[in-house]
Amino acid sequence: MKLAVMSCIHGNYEALNAVLSDIDRHKTDQIYCLGDLVGYGPHPNAVVEMIRSLDIPTCQGCWDEDIVDGLNACDCSYPSQLAEKRGKQAHEWTDQVIHPEVREYLANLPITLQAENLAFVHGSPNSQHEYLLPSMDGFAALERVLSTGADVLFCGHTHVPYVRDLEGGKLSMRVHQPGQAETQKQSTVSLKRIINAGSVGEPRHGRPNATYVLYDTDSKQVTLREVPYDYQKTCLAIVEQGLPPIFAWRLARGMEFAERADDPNHVCQR
Amino acid sequence: MEQWAILSGIEGNLVAYEALLDDIRRQRDSVAELYVLGDVVGLKGDNRAVVQRLQSPRTGELEPQVCIGWWEEQCFNLYLLGGLPDAPELIAQEGADTAQHLFESVSRESVEWMRSLHFGFHELDCLLIHGSTVGYADELTPDMPAIQLCDRLIRADAKNLFCGRSGLAFECWIEPSDLCSTIVTLEGTQAPKEQGRSPRRVVGVGNVGRILGQATYTLYNPANNHITFKTVKYGKAKGFALQGSQSQHGHESPDIRASR
Ligand SMILES: [Zn+2]
Ligand SMILES: [Zn+2]
Description:
- The structure holds 2 protein chains of 2 kinds.
- By secondary structure, chain A is an alpha/beta fold.
- Chain A contains 8 helices and 11 strands.
- The relative contact order of chain A is 0.20.
């Protein structure tokens, strides 16, 4: 079976259309979406309506959660204070324009989806706000996959696509408890994989093209797709809607504006 | 060599705590630090007295370094100093009557004092905490899958993770090795990296107050990385215990080499 997995559309209808056309050309059997349908971009309602009309199984992203629950975000939601301020503006704008049925749809999205040996989450199985960066400690990454019971974990949220294979990990454990004999255990973990789908509507890999992934469940082959589209249209709409122009600036460059997460390993406590 | 005494779960049991302090005084190697990893209050004892005892150590006694535990979090909820006003965890675990009882057994001032405590302590290559950095309710036990304990150690960013949530006394060495990590991005395939780490340890420090007549705690020697679990038997009758508490030396763990 051929799957297409996308994430982080962020109200960018142009990019979504381009990706859907690219998916069409690849004749996939099933599309999955990893959330962040809204936020930053100018067309949150249209994006949600498109995903709904196509019946695409979708999990809840960090922005979808915040639009529903209100911005009680812990600092971890934003890589810096500046980003937080702009994020708040985008949140308020989105909060005002989204239709009640769209809000309701976002509220009812599941946190994780599972299909056989595949699991789908927005950030990590722990939280929509946790970043699974490729630089994360391999055993910590392995724990995230194992916690789902799946062999392949699809995630988004970082806006930069990657595939990470984790193979041959060994864990030995020696336990001593008072009054009991010492015990020892050793285990080897079979190949696990993390596939980050990148971002359709707010890419940060250094180019403006939309990104998503194709996955063949039989051959286990992953293809990272990069799809050009008319991003200028979205940039114009961002400015016209009165959203912070910096969103248009960085969309045109495919980058996070000089902002890096202070502590990518931080786990949101809320 | 100077050691640390590390304990958790006094749970309002002042008699047990006093017996333990007596035992600490009797140690051949002096104890330089006293860590209390949360749950100083509970349902059965005298919470006010224990809080007061911790707040004002007597002359010549160590200043206890106390962090927040599960029961303290429940107090924050009940006194509206925390995130969950209706204390759902407490009600689910112990029932609504218990919530009322806990509320009445502590003063607002002592809850405010608890609120000023740390979530945990990072000292040398050790993290001392009630649950784990995942949360105060995270219960680490030796029965947990090794990968989860490994994850908690990575998150703790420490070679020794001392915790108290389970109430168990245990040490669990975890050694991750031989993991081959390969990353493919849009720019191509990065050279595979082999990941592994030197063994690290999760230590359950025992529980002071839960079992009447028997308090367990942990002695740690940072110089040689050696752990000793101590069990202190004390008389159950109040008043008697203060003078009559007797120490029984706990099972001594075998020598463990320093991990670095
Ligand atoms: Zn996103
Ligand atoms: Zn996100």
